[in-house]
Amino acid sequence: MGIGAVKKELSRLDKEELIKLLSELYSKDKATREFLDFYVKPDEEALHKKCRDKISHAFFPKRGYQLRLAEGKKAIADFKKYSLNSELLVDLMLFYAEQGVHYTNEYGDIDMPFYNSVASVYDHAMQLIKQEHLLIKFAERAKQIVHDTRGIGWGFHDDLDESYTQTYTEW
Q1: Contacts within 8 Å (CB) and 24+ apart, 134-143
Q2: Which structural domain range is residue 122 located in?
Q3: In a domain, 9, yes or no
Q4: pLDDT at residue 38, as a whole number
């Protein structure tokens, strides 16, 4: 069934039936609950903080040492679903990269998939910075991330430096 069929069926419902359906979805599905909560009371700052906390926890859980990079990336994707604020999105992406660099500097050399994940998010942040004309706002922070990767292996520093240079060369 596609969106057209769903819209057709929903258009047949009256207001009370729609409210009942949404209420039922709200109580049964966490993603729907989060979406409707944000729809009713959009608080980008609170969402941003929640996503930053998830990213931090993905790299530095309160218990144990297990990396959860997918959870960190999911926090970024979740923020992107709800908010159109590019500046806060870039902040989350750079925070992810900062946490990755901090993790490496704290625990030593990791592996290629780890570095690829961090470099990929950093590269997407650089693209968004350029696209949204946020170069001035994030220049020092983006440069500091690259600086903090000096001496890290697997071509990690080179990847981040290349992303930074491509973004800020023409600036």
Answers
A1: 134/86, 134/87, 134/90, 135/167, 135/168, 135/171, 137/87, 138/90, 138/94, 139/168, 139/171, 141/94, 142/94, 142/167, 142/168, 143/168
A2: 15-168
A3: no
A4: 85
* Number of domains within the chain: 1
Reduce the DSSP state of residue 55 to 3 states and report it: helix
Residue 103 in any domain: the answer is yes
d(CA 169, CA 166): 6
Residue 76 lies in a domain: yes
Q: Are 132 and 124 in contact (CB under 8 A)?
A: no
Residue 65 φ then ψ, to 5°: -130, 10
Q: How confident is the model at residue 81 (pLDDT cuts 50, 70, 90)?
A: very high
Look at residues 21, 18, 17 and name the one whose alpha carbon lies nearest to residue 29: 21
Going from the C-alpha of 74 to that of each of 55, 70, 138, 154, 169, the distances in angstroms are: 9, 6, 22, 25, 30
pLDDT tier for residue 63 given thresholds of 50, 70 and 90: confident
Question: In this structure, is residue 63 part of a structural domain?
Answer: yes
Distance CA 125, CA 146 (A): 13
- 3-class secondary structure, 97: helix
Distances (CA, A) of 5 to 1, 2, 14, 20: 6, 6, 17, 20
